[in-house]
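pls design
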């Protein structure tokens, strides 16, 4: 049975903004990873679910986070569940499997944290969630400027700072400063560690 990752999330403070101020941003990001409604769906106005390959899940979560942090005071809560996808329906919200169950349970358990991971391995979950809670100290405080640069860096992984600067019409030093303030290198090291661990699940 194929192992998949399911991200379940909702937009924090969504009522403070009109949907057309943030929904196109979210839709553009989700469209980069699959098709609606088989791979992703926005439901109940401000909730969403997306299915991706397990190794990409944390990168996708960080990408969505960067997108939403560009529209203050919005934020996002995301739970990643890694497991099986037993039944694939036409709509992701009707699909079943342990990945969906783990993602839903992990989401319900999110209290103060804005990101969580459930893989079914207690030991691995403990390590990954501890790392996420430490990373959140930085990620949850990204300014719109930092979030915009991080989003661009995630969308163009092969591009250097000069390339990002020219694409965004900014100076290379301002890009460097934003990535530093956003703890981008450390966040990406965590993402690579997750990728390595998930490959052995």
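designed seq:
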């Amino acid at each position: 049975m194929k192992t998949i990752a399911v991200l379940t999330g909702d937009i924090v403070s969504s009522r403070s903004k009109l949907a057309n101020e943030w929904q196109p941003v979210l839709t553009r990001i989700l469209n980069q990873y699959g098709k609606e409604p088989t791979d992703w769906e926005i439901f109940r106005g401000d909730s969403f679910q997306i299915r991706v390959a397990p190794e990409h899940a944390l990168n996708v979560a960080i990408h969505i986070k960067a997108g939403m942090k560009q529209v203050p005071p919005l934020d996002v809560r995301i739970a990643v569940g890694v497991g099986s996808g037993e039944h694939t329906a036409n709509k992701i919200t009707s699909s079943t499997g342990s990945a969906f169950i783990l993602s839903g349970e992990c989401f319900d358990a999110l209290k103060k944290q804005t990101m969580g991971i459930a893989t079914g391995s207690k030991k691995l979950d403990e390590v990954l969630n501890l790392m996420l809670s430490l990373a959140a100290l930085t990620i949850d405080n990204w300014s719109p400027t930092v979030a915009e640069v991080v989003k661009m860096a995630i969308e163009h992984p092969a591009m250097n700072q000069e390339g990002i600067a020219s694409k965004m019409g900014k100076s290379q030093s301002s890009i460097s400063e934003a990535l530093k303030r956003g703890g981008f290198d450390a966040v990406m090291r965590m993402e690579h560690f997750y990728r390595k661990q998930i490959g052995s699940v």
